[in-house]
Specification:
Helix content of chain B: over 70%
Strand content of chain A: under 5%
Number of strands of chain A: 0
Distance between the termini of chain B: 70 Å
Order of helices and strands of chain B: HHHHHHHHH
CATH class of chain B: Mainly Alpha
Shape of chain A: flat
Oligomer: heterodimer
Order of helices and strands of chain A: HHHHH
Number of helices of chain B: 9
Number of domains of chain A: 2
CATH superfamily of chain B: Cytochrome c oxidase, subunit III, four-helix bundle
Structural class of chain A: mainly alpha
Number of domains of chain B: 1
Helix content of chain A: over 70%
Structural class of chain B: mainly alpha
Shape of chain B: elongated
Strand content of chain B: under 5%
Chain lengths: 118, 242
């Protein structure tokens, strides 16, 4: 096992110089995440109160910003961007099944609304 | 004859994907951590999507900006929406950063730095858990709990517009059950993460990884810790913002 570990590290070190996470890069990602969170707060505290019944674009905006944060955490903090494409696909493709569950349950919840009016 | 067969077998196993070496070029434990996190992602998405479905079909919902407008642990009871959860989010993102810094120090085999950053990460985790305890305690003191809702007077403060008492009672029940279940499940993950981080830090101090020649274990627990942060990003959006 230890020899395998060493090979992994040795191979990583060859082209890992500019691909790895340096301290500077880590801080950069941290600032990006904090900035995105601040934008979310800005929408929630400053922009949203202007609309009495809520605007259509606000929730989608939250979701897009959340997915953006998720991208930065998974790609850089969890290092997935620098792994082999095979591993990245093995993790990301199954996640896409969740979209199916979202579609099914969204449809189902509309049906529940209908049930209540019978 | 037999030598030829062995050579042939060895040849087949020499390419990635045919059993020769890992096609993913990661150590076994790290790959398994990824697959565990994938399964955990499914668990959390099921919980969050059920929450979404129930909320979509509900006639009304307790407004997050009214339910979460106090700062538990201080005298601020009203008019500070998102402040407390903002602090919690910041703590968790910051602890994620200290975790990456521990991993980075591990790559350089800098034992002392690894310990320092791991201790900061543990501290961040404990601070987050304390904040969550305060938040739970606050909601509980208002009357929310699994299967319990506040009195009619208290409850009516959490809704915007014209809502009947029956609608308030129904959606408050749903909100309470979902909130405590989902943040509870997430909090339990944070708790496990803190325990795992403590064990790993003790191992670092004992020199286990220095002897092994690699701090790969820090990367594995790091993956788990970032996942906890990742889930919080979603919980935060869907419970506090939407």
């Amino acid at each position: 096992m230890s020899s395998e570990t060493t090979t992994v590290h040795a191979e990583g070190a060859e082209h890992g110089e500019h691909e790895g996470m340096t301290k500077k890069r880590i801080l950069k990602i941290f600032y990006i995440l904090t900035a995105i969170t601040c934008v979310e707060f800005f929408i929630a505290l400053v922009i949203a109160p202007h609309y009495k019944d809520g605007a259509v674009w606000i929730n989608p905006a939250y979701i897009v910003l959340t997915l953006l944060k998720a991208y930065f955490i998974v790609a850089f903090f969890m290092h997935l961007k620098f792994e082999k494409v095979g591993l990245a696909l093995a993790i990301i493709v199954p996640i896409l099944f969740i979209i199916g569950l979202i579609l099914v349950l969204t449809n189902e919840s509309h049906y529940w609304i209908g049930l209540r009016h019978i | 004859m037999s030598t030829a067969v062995t050579q042939h077998v060895d040849e087949v196993k020499s390419t990635p994907g045919s059993g020769g070496r890992s096609p993913f070029n990661v150590e076994y434990g790290k790959m398994m951590m990824w697959f565990f996190l994938l399964s955990d992602a499914f668990t959390f998405s099921s919980l969050l999507i059920s929450y979404g479905a129930l909320r979509f079909s509900a006639p009304t919902w307790p407004s997050p900006s009214l339910v979460f407008q106090s700062v538990p642990g201080t005298s601020i009871e009203h008019g500070a929406p998102l402040v407390f959860v903002g602090i919690m989010t910041f703590i968790l993102i910051a602890s994620s950063v200290t975790m990456v810094l521990a991993v980075e120090a591990g790559h350089r085999n800098a034992k002392k730095e690894v310990v320092t950053w791991m201790l900061f990460t543990i501290l961040g985790g404990l601070m987050f858990l304390s904040c969550q305890a305060l938040e739970w305690n606050h909601l509980h003191s208002e009357g929310f709990w699994w299967g319990h809702i506040p009195t009619k007077e208290v409850m009516s403060e959490f809704f915007k517009g014209n809502v009947t008492e029956g609608q308030m009672a129904m959606t408050s029940h749903q909100f309470a059950n979902l909130f405590f279940t989902i943040t509870g499940f997430h909090g339990f993950h944070v708790f496990s993460g803190v325990v795992i981080n403590i064990i790993i830090t003790i191992n670092v101090l004992l020199g286990t990884y220095a002897k092994r020649g690699s701090y790969l274990m820090i990367e594995k627990v790091g993956l788990y810790w970032h996942f906890v942060d990742l889930v919080w990003v979603f919980v935060f959006t869907f419970f506090y913002l939407v």
